[in-house]
Design a protein that fits this description.
The complex is a heterodimer of chains A (about 400) and B (about 750). Chain A is of the alpha/beta class. Chain A contains 14 helices and 12 strands. Chain A has a domain of about 120 residues: Rossmann fold, CATH 3.40.50.300. In chain A, helix 5 crosses helix 6, helix 5 runs parallel beside helix 7 and helix 7 packs parallel to helix 8. The longest helix of chain A has about 50 residues. Chain A is flat and about 80 Å long. Chain B is an alpha/beta fold and about 750 residues long. Among the domains of chain B are: about 110 residues; about 160 residues, no CATH class; about 100 residues, no CATH class. In chain B, helix 5 packs antiparallel against helix 6, helix 11 packs across helix 16 and helix 17 crosses helix 19. Classes of the chains: A alpha/beta (about 400), B alpha/beta (about 750). At the A-B interface, helix 8, helix 9, helix 11 and helix 12 of A face helix 20, helix 21, helix 22, helix 23 and helix 24 of B.
Chain lengths: ~400, ~750
């Protein structure tokens, strides 16, 4: 996996807790440039929360998110936990230790705490600086481009330089990640015209030239299969499929590299679903998009994704390429999930048996806790030692 | 197979500010008993409107243009709202798409499940009382008419018989009521003890003291001569003595122990102590006694009621076993009362049937006579209403008062016909007004146009009543009535009076029990918990007291299904029941619906936009587009031999697990149903469309006995078109896959 294309997004031990609810618990995966990564699981398993955490709609509890190698998200809980644990251990040890030993332990503790705190501060600084660094880089690029031309500049060029500079200053790394939401009705402001909805991102990032904005909006509308005339209408004048196209146009106008599509077709009729899926497929080829595709309809995910991660109650239980996952499902939950897919074949359907999944029956994790391990190259399963051996035997 | 529901030429439109939207345009289908019919189509195809019409819950701006929905011999489009109350929910139930919006968020699940049961129970109690008294009186009257021949002594004897029946029937219910309460208590206590013991074993007992107390009460309630009688003392000893055994002689120790029991909601801390051991032993013992009691057979209370009322004995005779007792009581009843009563009742029935036959013939004559009034093209108002009055009277008189099943066709005939006549004469007035309005507005509009202006808005076309159509409907009603009456007259010769007598007496018995059997809160709760178990909700007792928000989506949908099943309906309409749920839950709910269908022999109408879901469920599938059924057949017909381009498009627009090629999306959107296309509604989005598709609507072509499709492609002169490759490929692939497995 290391010499394949560049890793665009890396999610590293992501945890997202809401009070006592562990919505996402220790999830790690990578998304390569240009691929479609599918995330499946039943409702409430944390797949949407994962997507939203990546785009920083939530402050993550712990773990790191790297985009193009730059840390864009980090949670502090793991550092704090480390310090807490070290302190407790110290207290236990120091209770029956000689004074010299106690001194040594104290020193050790101090060093450890200082180290953790440093790491924590680093993370905090990274979060603060990542956008700044990115926009500084953009500004430098613009300067490099225009400064040589400034000697005998006409007013128009000066104006253009200013525009570009402003946009560069306002650039954010996170605008390269865009999201398409599930509900095409709720995610569009009913009081804004389609033009306003689509252009909003551009304006926030500093574009002021009306002509440029209009041009871009029209281009996007045509790209998603709508026409220019639609720009001055309101969302309620569109059908469900067309609204979802507006949502797509809004996402791609920022020229993103990564799109998080959160159940983009679940609310649509079957015939319209196909239109939207085909559209996403075309855009992906044209724009070289990378997509994190979140859905519960396995047939659609299988059709659309290169690799698929299966989530169950906040944990990633299996991750593999989509062909591998459907050919050799290994984790019992994946098997259960696949057995529930309805197929358009009555004879097969009447004999289909759904496999039930009960974690208490399937696993004995009382002694040996499960970890996320690579069973065959590129195929990861959450399992413990005993299961690891068993799954490997199964696959071979 | 028996047909439960028959929909014929159903046409519905909606009045909107932009004009009339034709939502359903003449659809036909029927539903057999125990069958699942799936209606598949895009949103706006009219599938939900159809289901709402069946339930009589169409929106206020709907117009029923025509057609009929026949259920149980009556046309659901013609009956009154009061009559619909008895059908909606009771006979035809519905599950909606979004379970959260069909549950009340601030009322506990238990209340929502039992509310209707209790309300309906009260209404039924009243109704049963009326029916029982009415029928017994009728039976008495007919008996006297048929047998007494003016002999007053004989008449008095017959009347006494009926009164006796009334008397001991009451005793029967008293006994059975008490028995049911006790047996129910025993059942509940037994299951509760089982769960307490289980939880103690798992060290997870919650509310221990409270629950054990409740079980004690329940166990006491189960003492009854026919449930727990021989071992009643033993049971009471266990119930009352479960703490005091360990009391030793030390009151302080006892108090401490009791306190410990009270304080700990989890009995964990009690393990090892004698009082705890004793509690477990006592519970086990109680359970054993109850379980033994539950294996006993139910005595024949009907016969026993007679015995206790008329034999002069205070108690039932002592017998070795309940079956023996039953034989004895049955014999006693038959010898002293029942056989002669049945014979008399049969005579009364035969007599009644003869009388009715005569009246029915008169009714047919009357119908024939007045039919002419409605054949006239311009109806005379007075003549029409007079004719209706006369006909309705004759037909109602011809109803057999002894018949236990309501002949709803006859019953609703009068009101149905009156509605149509009203419609006709109101139509005459309204049509004139509408035409005048349209002419006036149109003239104003045209004047504006002539001036070269573009007026905003359009002139709403006149909505006219088709008088000819209404008149034909009336004629059709009369013809159907004539056929129905003649059928009844012909059937009198072949009726099985023995069976009918038994049915009549059973009917009286069941109504009598309806009077006494109150649906109390606890009965409703027991029923609700049973239902919750049936639909697969674990820990129903705990769940009973929770609010809807404490349930997950799948569980909520199960509750909605349980509510729908509470009244034991014949037909269940599922309107997109799994669209809001994910794959695993969807699969579970579909399995549940399938299982319930098998168990209860339900007929199901399953509405969805996802063909993939119905492969598992449906026996037959109807594909709807723009208010019409474009193809219907068995699910094999639709999935393997689909013939309509729209079905092809639906099938090829959804990916399955092996699809790699580009999906065939259906281009465009469904047509605007205010101005439906002249030709095939799908033509504009159809890549196989021919010229004729834009000009004329295709008729239904029959492909095989079960398979029909409305597309010009099936016309003998049409060019041969193969289904899209993506479908044929898939079918071949599926076949290969199945071949591997078999």
């Amino acid at each position: 996996m290391s010499n394949t294309p560049e890793t665009l997004l890396k999610v590293d031990h992501l945890c997202q807790y809401f009070g006592f609810t562990r919505a996402v618990d220790d999830v790690s995966f990578e998304i390569k440039k240009g691929e479609v990564f599918g995330l499946v699981g039943e409702s409430g398993c944390g797949k949407t929360t994962t997507g939203r955490s990546i785009i920083k709609l939530y402050n993550i509890t712990s773990g790191n998110i790297y985009y193009k190698g730059i840390r864009i998200g980090a949670g502090m809980k793991s550092y704090k936990d480390d310090i807490e644990r070290a302190k407790n251990e110290y207290k236990e040890k120091v209770a029956n230790a000689t004074p010299e030993e106690a001194q040594r332990l104290k020193a050790e503790l101090d060093a450890y705490v200082a180290d953790r705190k440093k790491a924590m501060n680093e993370a905090k600084r990274d979060l603060k600086e990542c956008d700044k660094a990115y926009s500084a880089q953009q500004v430098a690029e613009v300067n490099a481009k225009y400064e040589p031309l400034m000697n005998n500049a006409n007013p128009e060029l000066v104006q253009e330089y200013r525009n570009e500079l402003r946009k560069a200053k306002r650039a954010r790394l996170s605008s390269q990640i865009q999201m398409i939401f599930q509900d095409p009705i709720a995610s569009l402001d009913p009081r804004m015209t389609v033009r306003e909805i689509i252009a909003e991102g551009l304006i926030i990032r500093g574009e002021r030239n009306k002509k440029v904005i209009d041009e871009k909006v029209f281009e996007m509308l045509e790209r998603v299969g709508l026409v220019r005339e639609h720009a001055d209408r309101y969302p309620h004048e569109f059908s469900g499929g067309q609204r979802q196209r507006i949502g797509v146009a809004r996402a791609i106008i920022m020229n993103p590299e990564l799109i998080i599509a959160d159940e983009p077709v679940s609310a649509l009729d079957v015939s319209i679903q196909a239109q939207v899926i085909n559209l996403l497929n075309e855009l992906r080829e044209e724009m070289g998009l990378t997509i994190l595709f979140i859905a519960h309809d396995l047939s659609v995910v299988k059709y659309f994704s290169d690799r698929i991660g299966v989530m169950y109650f906040g944990k990633m239980v299996e991750l593999a390429t989509s062909d591998e996952l459907f050919a050799h499902p290994t984790h019992p939950y994946t098997k259960s999930l696949l057995s529930a897919i309805p197929l358009p074949d009555p004879v097969y359907e009447k004999n289909r048996k759904r496999i039930a999944y009960d974690p208490l029956v399937e696993h004995d994790y009382s002694v040996d806790k499960p970890t996320f391990r690579e069973i065959t190259p590129g195929h990861f399963v959450s399992c413990n030692d005993e299961e690891f051996a068993r799954y490997q035997a199964e696959l071979n | 197979m028996e047909n439960k529901l028959h929909v014929k030429d159903l046409t519905i439109s909606f009045r909107t500010s932009n004009g009339k939207v034709q939502a359903v345009r003449g659809i036909n289908f029927d539903l057999a008993k125990g069958e699942t019919l799936a209606i598949v189509g895009e949103s706006g195809s009219g599938k939900s409107v159809t289901s709402k019409a069946i339930l009589g819950i169409l929106a206020g701006n709907s117009i029923l243009e025509g057609g009929e929905i026949i259920y149980d011999g009556q046309d659901l489009l013609k009956i009154t709202e009061d009559e619909f109350h008895k059908i909606r929910g009771d006979k035809i139930a519905m599950i909606f798409q979004d379970p959260m919006s069909s549950l009340n968020p601030i009322v506990k699940i238990g209340k929502q499940l039992t509310e209707a049961m209790i309300l309906k129970g009260k209404a039924r109690q009243r109704e049963s009382k009326e029916i029982f008294n009415k029928y017994l009186k009728q039976l008495n009257r007919r008996m006297v008419e048929a047998l007494a021949n003016g002999d007053s002594a004989k008449a008095a004897e017959l009347t006494k018989k009926c009164n006796d029946f009334n008397k001991f029937e009451y005793k029967h219910l008293e006994l059975e009521g008490a028995y049911n309460v006790a047996r129910h208590a025993a059942e509940e206590a037994s299951t509760e003890i089982a769960s307490i013991l289980f939880e103690i074993e798992k060290n997870a007992l919650h509310d221990g003291i409270y629950r054990i107390k409740q079980v004690k009460e329940k166990a006491k309630d189960s003492i009854n001569p026919w449930v727990v009688s021989d071992r009643a003392e033993e049971l009471l000893a266990q119930v009352n003595g479960w703490v005091s055994e360990d009391a030793t002689d030390d009151p302080a120790k006892l108090a401490a122990m009791k306190n410990a029991l009270k304080r700990s909601t989890i009995v964990k801390g009690l393990k090892g102590r004698t009082s705890f051991e004793y509690t477990v032993a006592a519970l086990t013992k109680i359970k054993e006694i109850l379980d033994e009691a539950l294996t006993l057979k139910q005595p024949n209370f009907f016969a026993m009621g007679y015995y206790l009322t008329f034999s002069g004995e205070k108690e039932a005779p002592k017998m070795a076993s309940i079956p023996e007792l039953n034989t004895y009581l049955r014999g006693y009843l038959d010898d002293h009362f029942m056989l002669s009563f049945i014979a008399d009742a049969k005579e009364a029935l035969i007599y009644s049937a003869q009388v009715c036959k005569k009246e029915m013939k008169e009714a047919v004559d009357c119908l024939r006579m007045y039919r002419g009034v409605f054949e006239n093209e311009n109806l005379d108002k007075k003549a029409a209403y007079d004719a209706h009055k006369a006909i309705a009277k004759e037909v109602m008189e011809a109803l057999d008062p002894m018949s236990t099943t309501k002949d709803s066709l006859v019953y609703t005939f009068g009101s149905g016909m009156k509605t149509e006549i009203d419609k006709y004469f109101n139509g005459i007035v309204k049509n004139a007004a509408e035409t005048a309005r349209y002419d006036k507005q149109k003239a104003a509009y045209d004047a504006l146009v002539a001036k070269g202006k573009t007026p905003d808005g359009e002139v709403v076309p006149a909505s006219l009543t088709d008088l000819e159509f209404v008149r034909n409907t009336i004629l059709h009603q009369i013809d159907r009535m004539i056929a129905h009456c003649e059928g009844l007259v012909a059937a009198t010769e072949t009726r099985d009076y023995d069976a009918e007598t038994v049915a009549l007496i059973d009917f009286l018995k069941s109504n009598a029990s309806g009077v006494v059997n109150k649906v109390t809160k606890s009965v409703a709760k027991a029923k609700a918990i049973k239902l919750m178990e049936e639909v697969g909700i674990s820990e129903p007792r705990k769940r009973y007291n929770q609010y809807p928000f404490e349930f997950s989506g799948g569980m909520r949908q199960r509750i909605v299904i349980a509510i729908a099943l509470a009244a034991d309906p014949d037909i269940l309409i599922c309107d997109e029941p799994t669209t809001a749920l994910d794959v695993t839950i969807q699969s579970k709910i579909l399995e549940l619906i399938n299982r319930l269908k098998e168990e209860r022999n339900l007929s199901i109408i399953f509405i969805t936009h996802d063909l993939g879901v119905v492969a598992n469920m449906a026996d037959r599938i109807a594909v709807m587009y723009a208010g019409k059924i474009v193809e219907y057949g068995t699910s094999e017909d639709i999935f393997y031999r689909a013939a309509h381009p729209y079905t092809w498009a639906l099938l090829s627009s959804m990916p399955d697990l092996d699809t790699n090629e580009k999906l065939d999306a259906i281009p465009g959107t469904p047509p605007n149903m205010i101005y439906p296309p002249v030709g095939d509604a799908f033509a504009a989005r159809n890549k196989y469309a021919m010229k004729i598709d834009f000009e004329r609507q295709p008729p239904m072509f029959q492909i095989s006995e079960t398979h029909h499709a409305a597309t010009w492609l099936l016309h003998p002169d049409a060019p041969k078109v193969d289904p899209p490759k993506i479908i044929t490929d898939r079918i071949a692939r599926m076949k290969a896959k199945r071949g591997d497995k078999e």
